[in-house]
DNA sequence: ATTGAAAGAGACGATGT
DNA sequence: ACATCGTCTCTTTCAAT
């Protein structure tokens, strides 16, 4: 696992990142125009941002409702042990559950916060029973369902 | 606001969505090869997915640490009124706070769950004081900080 | 209705000035 | 920063299944 430390970004870099968060398939020609640089200078900066790991990847953003996964559920998981080995074991296990789209280790103990996307409540129950409670060391699992997504994957304020 | 209802997807569509979530800048030539179609058939399907709103956009995925926003904070906000007008007012106000990258209305009351990205704890305090508690109708605000992100913006299980 | 092949236009990447 | 040039990619058209 490579840790990426903070990188110095100037105003032009930030403009590029904002443009590419809004349209990740923008051509370099358009990007250069958007940040008022020549195409070669724009491409050089873009490659530098990619190489430095500032841009980790490009992705198509999928409409969750359109693909039949309209329900987001936030799940809090407590482990019985907070030893690093127990945390790693949990994280390895949870990475194999496709419905888990986000997973954070929270401060103050051994609590994880997960976001799942599911088809319906039966699907939630299935994932809960088959994938979450069966992981060794999982002590408590509590879920709350999102009714409405107000901001979905907003861009970072760069 | 346009609501996108679920769309029928076949196995090839799903393969395309998986490929494009992993690499949103993949060329149509490569995409066609990945799903075993001709370029023209691949491109036609891709445009259909875009037009139907299954793919909402393409985005560069930014490394939060690399741009100096290493801290994710989950904030629960309770409103004093659960009237639809109060909810809408809150959602309009929260949309103007750049640090808020996700916002969900949770079932069972008038609680919102937000994810903020901030530079450090001073930055969190500033956003908390200047942007969150000043929104009319906000009654309770409680924060918890993520120590570690295990799965960052995982792909949807399509 | 969906696919495949082909051809022109445009973008990309590399190089040199 | 600009110009150039070969290559790759996108897009449309048309025929086939």
Automatic annotation (TrEMBL), chains A, B:
InterPro entries associated with the record: ArsR-like_HTH, AsnC-type_HTH_dom, Dimeric_a/b-barrel, Tscrpt_reg_AsnC-like, Tscrpt_reg_AsnC/Lrp_C, Tscrpt_reg_HTH_AsnC-type_CS, WH-like_DNA-bd_sf, WH_DNA-bd_sf
Pfam family, one: AsnC_trans_reg
Gene Ontology MF term list: sequence-specific DNA binding
Keyword vocabulary terms for this entry: DNA-binding, Transcription, Transcription regulation
Cellular component GO terms held in the UniProt record: cytosol
SMART domains: HTH_ASNC
Protein name (record): Transcriptional regulator, AsnC family
Organism: Brevundimonas subvibrioides (strain ATCC 15264 / DSM 4735 / LMG 14903 / NBRC 16000 / CB 81)
